[in-house]
Design a protein that fits this description.
The complex is a heterodimer of chains A (113) and B (108). With 113 residues, chain A is mainly β. In chain A, 0% of the residues lie in helices and 57% in strands. Classes of the chains: A mainly beta (113), B mainly beta (108).
Chain lengths: 113, 108
């Protein structure tokens, strides 16, 4: 069966420090991968999505970047964090060949101080 | 782009009560999912329901794609049902568009 792993679960970082959040999917190949952010309130904002290795689409211009170095690995990064980057980051995957159900990881809660 | 509206935004129920959550979308979509976000933040897929009706225990969902809405029914609510319920729609390989959610509080 397929599983999605996301880490770290919790992160407290100072302003101006770098960031790296990692997401990996097991049990499938060539998935669509997504990064969402949930800030104050409850809305989910799509940040990046990828349909293949090295293919990244950005939905919102911001202080973050994403990379997909391997088929089932998706990384969210920042060179210098801002206070506004605080939030709950969720990775998700979808199998293009199957039922197209989107499945989320457990999330990473980032606090920038 | 597609707009997704959920109602009501907030709902408080007594344990044992029933409820109906609604999701309206502005354009034709191929697929629709309902999620529950628990108090720890995890988003759990409840239903993948592009059309028709599905049931899973005390929860059921109906999507009428031609009329651009979906309903989520919760019967005999329990405190563990508390959280935020999201509707999300997409077409083909396009990313999901989420509604703003319905925050449900079930009181014992």
């Amino acid at each position: 069966s397929q599983t999605i792993h996301q880490w770290p679960a919790t992160l407290v970082q100072p302003v101006g420090s770098p960031l790296s959040l990692e997401c990996t999917v097991e049990g499938t190949s060539n998935p669509n991968l997504y990064w969402y952010r949930q800030a104050a309130g409850r809305g989910l904002q799509l940040l990046f999505y990828s349909v293949g290795i090295g293919q990244i689409s950005s939905e919102v211009p911001q202080n973050l970047s994403a990379s997909r170095p391997q088929d089932r690995q998706f990384i969210l990064s920042s060179k210098k964090l801002l206070l506004s980057d605080s939030g709950f980051y969720l990775c998700a995957w979808r199998d293009r060949r199957g039922a197209n159900v989107l499945t989320f990881g457990a999330g990473s809660r980032l606090t920038v101080l | 782009g597609i707009q997704v509206e959920q109602s009501p935004p907030d709902l408080i129920l007594q344990e044992g009560a029933n409820s109906t959550l609604r999701c309206n979308f502005s354009d034709s979509v191929n697929n629709l999912q309902w999620f529950h976000q628990n108090p720890w933040g995890q988003l759990i897929n409840l239903f993948y329901i592009p059309s028709g009706t599905k049931q899973n225990g005390r929860l059921s969902a109906t999507t009428v794609a031609t009329e651009r809405y979906s309903l989520l029914y919760i019967s005999s609510s329990q405190t563990t049902d508390s959280g935020v319920y999201f509707c999300a729609v997409y077409s083909g390989n396009t990313p999901l568009v989420f509604g703003k959610g319905t925050r449900l509080s079930v009181i014992a």
